[in-house]
Specification:
The radius of gyration is 13 Å and the shape is elongated. The chain contains no helices and seven strands. It is mainly beta. A hairpin with a 2-residue loop joins strand 3 and strand 4. The protein has a single domain, classed as Jelly Rolls (Sandwich). The strands form two sheets. Strands 1-6-3-4 form a four-stranded antiparallel β-sheet, with no helix packed on it. Strands 5-2-7 form a three-stranded antiparallel β-sheet, with no helix packed on it.
């Protein structure tokens, strides 16, 4: 996803884990669950790393709406503000 983009998903469970990538081209994003801000992450890394897990736990056991908002910002060392959504794990 590029800056100013969003990804939404509906999931059922007590935990939701977003599978993503860290690299020099990645930036920052905020994760919302049911409209509540849960995480702000920086997916920058000097070398590419796959299978990065970003988890939100201790949720009620019901259907949840998860939204990832690309902030369009990145740290100085990064060459981009991209965010990857490679998959979801639901517990």
């Amino acid at each position: 996803m590029h800056s100013s983009r969003r990804s939404s998903s509906r999931r059922f469970g007590t935990s939701i884990t977003w599978l993503t990538v860290k690299s020099a081209k990645m930036g920052k994003a905020t994760v919302y669950v049911d409209g509540v801000k849960k995480l702000t992450v920086d997916n920058y890394a000097s070398t590419t790393q796959y299978g990065i897990k970003r988890a939100v736990k201790s949720l009620a056991n019901r259907k949840h709406t998860v939204k990832i908002v690309v902030l369009g910002t990145h740290r100085r060392a990064a060459s981009g503000s991209n965010i990857a959504v490679d998959g979801w794990l639901v517990g």
